[in-house]
Design a protein that fits this description.
Layout: E1 3-7, H1 10-21, E2 28-34, H2 40-50, E3 65-69, E4 73-78, H3 91-94, E5 100-104, E6 117-124, E7 130-137, H4 139-148
Bound molecules: adenosine-5'-diphosphate and magnesium ion (MG).
């Protein structure tokens, strides 16, 4: 079961992030997949703001993981430049730290992702149009999707 959502603007993507954020819970994991410029970081910024994080969210491409304090902790990862050092960063530990983890380019670490998670694939249609394919794995995520999508 998945949900297809069309976004026609930054604002649509921001609203989608806010809707999902409204149902956040500790140890939530959101896996973002999509080409450069599809909106992964924009989605994360909107989610973070909605969590009460005022700090500016920047793409953690070079340091891979950034941590922010909000209503829950936010662990923002961008694993694009991650290669064989995967284990050294202890990424799986973050899934148990009671925060929310959002991973850009999550498909690159599919072997270490938790079974229960929310997958969000973003397809670029044109300059402003994106198609989001959202797939929940596990009951909590299925319920969340039913409530907000
Ligand atoms: N519907 C849309 N949803 C998300 N981003 C959009 C949309 N339309 C245009 N954009 C633009 O696409 C870019 C997405 O950039 P970014 O979030 O950094 O992508 P990524 O992190 O996937 O590389 C931004 O400049 C944003 O304004
Ligand atoms: Mg990005």
């Amino acid at each position: 079961m998945n949900y297809k959502i069309t976004s026609n603007s930054d604002m649509d993507t921001i609203e989608l992030a806010q809707n999902i954020e409204s149902e956040k819970f500790p140890n939530m994991v959101i896996c973002l997949e999509g080409d450069l410029g599809s909106g992964k970081t924009l989605f994360t910024k909107a989610f973070a703001k909605s969590m009460g994080i005022n700090e500016n969210i920047t793409s953690p491409t070079f340091n891979i993981i950034k941590e922010y304090e909000g209503e829950l902790k936010l662990f923002h990862m961008d694993v694009y430049r991650l290669n064989e050092v995967k284990e050294d960063l202890g990424i799986p530990e973050y899934f148990k730290k009671k925060g929310v983890t959002i991973i850009e380019w999550a498909d690159l670490i599919s072997d270490i992702l938790p079974k229960k998670r929310l997958d969000i694939k973003i397809k670029i249609v044109d300059e402003n149009k994106r198609i989001f394919t959202i797939t929940p794995y596990g009951e909590e995520y299925e319920d969340l999707c039913q409530r907000v999508l």
